[in-house]
């Protein structure tokens, strides 16, 4: 049975003040050959951050003016999933594992220890949907995944004392996503965990929560019995060098700001929200850009976009274009005809992308 290694990242507090470094940690543990077994680590941001999924439209998902005015930084992770607001009141846990054809994208498997730990604290936590953890029908965690070669990472957030007002004002998820959850705002959909802690744990710190999580995971009552790797200065220098090259690149973080005529979105059960910005001239698509919070992070969205450009704006032609774009491989289990309908039907028209 493969061992689990706890990686203590507390030696990198100064480095982790840079959002890019926090986003690169998973990649480091996936790609560095000295980490061969399953790894668990935690990340707690020093400042408020909006973290967008690799395929998301920052200009559509985030109120950039609000973020600038309130000192909220923007980051982009290498994994799929949706945009999240995190601050020092949030504890993120992350597993890095080898793909043995059993647990990649099996969010339930990697959420079970978080759920069990929270139940010990009096929280009736549960997994709902494809990757959400909830209590009292309110979300406190979304999970995402990143795969490189034969290793992958997956993790989620534990919102304990997060500034929910900041989160509500900074995030602007697509209306189709909110409708699929049966809510009207971010604030009504998410919650902090502390109100649900039993009286004995009401004053628990995030460090104590992390300890509880680890003791539960390793079936021990003694932290000294947990196999632990403490990050070295050499590790942090290597991470900083690699992280700033990509995760610190503002062009990569912000992505393309589209100025198309139309912006449509639809939430697909089991896959996520797909958003397409597009323009039509003389009955033909002249531009298309695909965005979304689906967890397939390495699909070739350009293949779909290329097929759409030059396609007549009618259901049959669009269905064929999405078929040729290999939607199942590049986004997920969605019928091409459903995406064609999304582009045609005005009920799926969403907000403007210009912020």
UniProtKB/TrEMBL annotation:
Keyword Nucleotide-binding part of the UniProt annotation: yes
**What pathway, per the record?**
Protein modification; protein lipoylation via exogenous pathway; protein N(6)-(lipoyl)lysine from lipoate: step 2/2; Protein modification; protein lipoylation via exogenous pathway; protein N(6)-(lipoyl)lysine from lipoate: step 1/2
Catalysed reaction equations from the record: L-lysyl-[lipoyl-carrier protein] + (R)-lipoate + ATP = N(6)-[(R)-lipoyl]-L-lysyl-[lipoyl-carrier protein] + AMP + diphosphate + H(+)
| EC numbers | 6.3.1.20
**Class of the enzyme per the UniProt entry, highest EC level:** ligase
Q: Which residues form a coiled coil?
A: none
- PROSITE patterns given for it? BPL_LPL_CATALYTIC
Nucleotide-binding as a keyword of this entry, yes or no, is yes
Name any GO cellular component annotation: cytoplasm
One GO-annotated biological process of the protein: protein lipoylation
> What keywords does the record list, in alphabetical order?
ATP-binding, Ligase, Nucleotide-binding, Transferase
Which part of the chain is the BPL/LPL catalytic domain?
34-225
Q: Which SUPFAM superfamilies match?
A: Class II aaRS and biotin synthetases, SufE/NifU
Which InterPro entries does this entry report, sorted A to Z? aa-tRNA-synth_II/BPL/LPL, BPL_LPL_catalytic, Lipoate_protein_ligase_C, LipoylTrfase_LipoateP_Ligase
Q: Which GO terms describe its molecular function?
A: ATP binding; lipoate-protein ligase activity; lipoyltransferase activity
Descriptive protein name: lipoate--protein ligase
What organism does the UniProt record list as the source?
Answer: Lentilactobacillus hilgardii (strain ATCC 8290 / DSM 20176 / CCUG 30140 / JCM 1155 / KCTC 3500 / NBRC 15886 / NCIMB 8040 / NRRL B-1843 / 9)
């Amino acid at each position: 049975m493969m061992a689990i290694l706890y990686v203590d990242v507390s030696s990198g507090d100064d480095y982790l003040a840079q959002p890019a470094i926090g986003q690169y940690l998973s990649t480091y543990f996936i790609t560095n050959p000295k980490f061969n077994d399953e790894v668990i680590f935690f990340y707690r941001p020093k400042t408020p951050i909006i973290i967008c999924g690799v395929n998301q439209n920052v200009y559509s998902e985030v109120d950039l003016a609000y973020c600038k005015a309130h000192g909220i930084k923007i980051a982009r992770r290498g994994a799929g999933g949706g945009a999240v607001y995190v601050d020092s009141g949030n504890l993120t846990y992350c597993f890095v594992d080898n793909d043995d054809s059993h647990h990649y994208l099996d969010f339930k498997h990697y959420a079970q220890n978080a759920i069990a730990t929270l139940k010990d604290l009096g929280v009736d936590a549960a997994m709902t949907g494809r990757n959400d953890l909830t209590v009292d029908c309110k979300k406190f965690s979304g999970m995402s995944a990143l795969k490189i070669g034969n290793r992958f990472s997956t993790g989620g957030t534990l919102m304990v004392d997060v500034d929910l007002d900041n989160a509500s004002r900074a995030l602007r998820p697509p209306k189709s996503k909110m409708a699929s959850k049966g809510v009207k705002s971010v604030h009504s959909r998410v919650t902090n965990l502390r109100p649900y802690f039993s009286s004995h744990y009401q004053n628990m710190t995030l460090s104590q929560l992390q300890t509880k999580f680890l003791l539960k995971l390793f079936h021990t009552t003694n932290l000294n019995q947990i196999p632990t790797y403490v990050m070295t200065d050499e590790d942090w220098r290597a991470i900083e060098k690699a992280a700033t090259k990509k995760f610190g690149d503002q062009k990569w973080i912000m992505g393309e700001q589209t100025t198309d005529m139309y912006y449509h979105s639809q939430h697909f059960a089991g896959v996520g929200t797909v958003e397409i910005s597009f323009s039509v001239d003389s009955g033909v698509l002249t531009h298309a850009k695909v965005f979304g919070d689906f967890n397939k992070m390495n699909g070739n969205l350009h293949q779909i976009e290329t097929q759409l450009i030059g396609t007549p704006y009618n259901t049959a032609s669009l269905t064929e274009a999405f078929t040729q774009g290999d939607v199942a491989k590049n986004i997920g289990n969605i019928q091409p005809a459903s995406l064609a309908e999304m582009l045609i039907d005005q009920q799926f028209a969403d907000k403007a992308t210009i912020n």
